[in-house]
Amino acid sequence: MSVTPNLNAYLYFEAVARRGTITRAAEELSVSPSAVSQQVKLLEQRLGVKLFRRNGRVLSLTLEGEQLFQSSTTALRLLRDAGRHLGKTRETHRLNLRVTPSFGVRWLGPRLADFVARHPDWDLRVDAAPDPTDFEREVMDLDIRYGAGDWQGLHARAVVPDHVLPLCSPEYLAGLAFSDDAGALLDQARLIDSARALCQWDFWLYHNGIETQGNRKSILMDRSSMALQLALDGAGIVLESLALALPEVAEGRLVPVLPANPVLTFPSYWAICPARYLNRRAVRLFLDWLEDAATAHSGQVRDILDHHGLTVRNLKFDGGQLVGAEP
């Protein structure tokens, strides 16, 4: 026998379990008590269990009834929430976006005014958070995430690459004794790392064939935005990406420390979402705009590289890890 009754049976059962009597449930649902009673009996017959203990007009849940009540309450709440969300979607154009914090502040934030100007009838909600979206549990259309692009079960589109190189303020660089030996130059300095960066100092030094004395002074910051601010304040040399530091480099407030060494580049910022979300108009519009903004950014990066005579070496991911450079 089928154990999949119609949804009314679950709806009526949930109302009775919550209100405690068939009469109160019927009043809430605007139906007759007999209709509610019939649906509950039908549900018990289909499932082959007793869901209520009856004490006059007052009903209490059996163990099986309590289990079903928990599940049905959760399912009905999800349906109601979905209905409210769809209702809001009909009333307004809305995009819910999550973004990794430093990228949100330093790259995306200064460009969002352009998106708003192009789409003035859209409401935009931006959530800057270090953890990726759980799309099955959260109301979010798109997430821009830093990483290797290996989010299982999700569509991931590379949007902005990293171009990583050592940077510092002109004043800090002027205070270092000049040396043709890159290792000796860096041994004088305090090296600033970003804890979440895919490419950190040890990795960069190895792939540039640079040896230091190993007793260098260092600072490890939790956020790239904090690491960059330290470098701007003259606290040391930061290993960072032009994706985040482009304005300061373009203005000359940060300068390349070792222009003879290649800039390491790799895909690092990804737009991720369930593949089915690509059918959403808001997602398509934002991805189109994001592609335009990323193209303009790439042109600015090329200008900076050319201006400083910098070369580029491409990196790749293998099993989610950043690995060897290609000449």
Outline the structure in words.
The chain has helices spanning about 5-20, 20-30, 35-45, 65-90, 100-110, 110-120, 170-175, 180-185, 200-205, 225-230, 240-250, 280-310, and strands at about 50-55, 60, 95-100, 120-130, 140-145, 155-170, 190-195, 215-220, 235-240, 255, 265-275, 310-320, 320-325. The strands form two sheets. Strands 3, 4, 5, 6, 7, 8, 9, 10, 11, 12 and 13 form an eleven-stranded mixed β-sheet that branches. A two-stranded antiparallel sheet has the order 1-2. Helix 1 crosses helix 3, helix 1 crosses helix 4 (about 65-90) and helix 2 (about 20-30) packs across helix 3. The mean pLDDT is about 90. It has about 325 residues and is α/β, with parallel strands linked by helices.
